[in-house]
Amino acid sequence: MIDALEIGDDCLVLSQRLAAQVTRAPTLEEDIALANLSLDLLGQARALLSRVGDEDELAYRRGPAEYRNCLLVEQPDADFAHTVVRHLLYSTFLHALYADHPDDDVAAKGIKELAYHRDYAGLWAVRLGRGTQESGRRMVAALAALWPYTGEIFAVRPETEERVGQVLRQAGLQAPHGVPQRDGGRRGEHTEHLTGLLDELQCLHREHLGARW
Amino acid sequence: MVTLEEARAVAAAVPDPELPMVTLGDLGILREVRHAPGGGIEVVITPTYSGCPAMDAIRDDLRRALPGAVVTTVLSPPWTTDWITEEGRGKLREHGISPPGRAAAVPVTLGVRCPQCGSPGTRLVSRYGSTACKAHYACSDCLEPFEHLKEL
Question: Where are the domains of chain A?
Fold first, then answer.
């Protein structure tokens, strides 16, 4: 069974990261693309968190230690290469997880969306990896920065590593090897980045308790 | 008191808020109209994409069209563009949106025709367009940009 709290939190946090790129993406097309990726994940987060309890309570009234998302999705967008690498890793993982749960309605609905996310991130990985010296350098830096947070997802769906590796080979890049891993997201032990993300996500609700659209 | 058949016709004729040239019936997102367990009418709809932001507007429009109706959302079985009717595809094309081809079991890239001049010489500009369900294309012959409803 899909852990609705863990995966719901993954989707919510990654959705928030992507939505924060709106008006700041490198081109208008990518701005729109990232907003759409964010929306798909938000829809999945809402459906999953509603299985656990009240979606608004869960999104707006929990502190970082109560969030159960993996550490990868909360990592910041230092540049577009980070956005691409993080999305390639996470969408490959979530696609594999959904593929294993065809009887789950969120997974059955979300799998085609995630296939599109994975393709989107993969195409960008290849374009940046084989692009200019600068874009290649940034991809290498993003891989190095994010690889310490892959253990949590590779442990659950080991095929993720091989699939991401195939894309990286096409991109002329290498998956980092033997990188010490950090975990704890599933226990509520997060990196400092989640605090700032939640501040932004929850500030309106904190300021105007019970605010509704 | 409206009959189920009348209610179904009313619900099916409600226009989609983001693609108002087609109705909920044309798009295939109207799943069922039935008697609610507590009496009255229940309308069952399904989203095109998990995060479709038009769902709230669709629910409101349905409640306005059928006062007192209960609107329920289901995800399963997942919507596919194959549920868009032939009539719906024709309306999209008339309004400059290239309709989706048949969703394939294996992802393949099929040619997308320009809805303005009919030319098969088109190129993908961006995999995402103004809504989650569309991609952005341009025609290499008449040079018009246009949107294509993605196969799902």
Answer: 4-207
Whether B88 is covered by a domain: the verdict is: no
**Interface residue B100 vs chain A (CB under 8 A):** no
For B17-73, how does the pLDDT look when each residue is reduced to its tens digit (9 = 90+)? 999 999 999 999 999 999 998 889 999 999 999 999 899 999 999 999 999 999 999
Do B112 and B74 belong to one domain? no
Look at chain B and report how many structural domains it folds into.
2
CB contact under 8 A, B49 and A47: no
Superfamily of domain A4-207: Ferritin, core subunit, four-helix bundle (1.20.1260.10)
Model pLDDT for residues B63-110, shown as the tens digit of each residue: 999 999 999 999 999 999 999 999 999 999 999 999 998 876 555 556
> Are A109 and B129 a contacting pair at CB < 8 A?
no
Look up the pTM and report it: 0.91
- A35 neighbourhood in chain B, CB within 8 Å: 128
3-state SS assignment for residue B140: coil
Do B125 and B60 reside in the same domain of the chain?
A: no
Is the CB of residue A111 less than 8 Å from the CB of residue A98? yes
Do residue A33 and residue B53 have CB atoms under 8 angstroms apart? no
The two tokens of residue B128 are: 């995402």
| Interface mutation vs chain B, best among A2, A15, A30, A36, most B CBs within 10 Å | A36
Which residues does chain B have within 8 Å of residue A40's beta carbon, measured at their own beta carbons? 49-51, 132
Question: Which domain, by its residues, includes B50?
Answer: 4-79
**Interface residues from chain A to B (CB-CB < 8 Å):** 29, 32-33, 35-36, 38-44, 46-47, 105-106, 108-110, 112-113, 115-116, 119-120, 123
Q: What pLDDT score was predicted for residue A37? A: 96
Tokens of B54: 């038009």
pLDDT digits (tens, 9 = 90+) for A69-122: 999 999 999 999 999 999 999 999 999 999 999 999 999 999 999 999 999 999
Where residue B45 sits, what CATH number does that domain have? 3.30.300.130
Q: In B16-43, which positions are buried (b, 16+ CB within 10 angstroms) versus exposed (e)?
A: bebbeebbbbbbbbbbebeeeeeeebbb
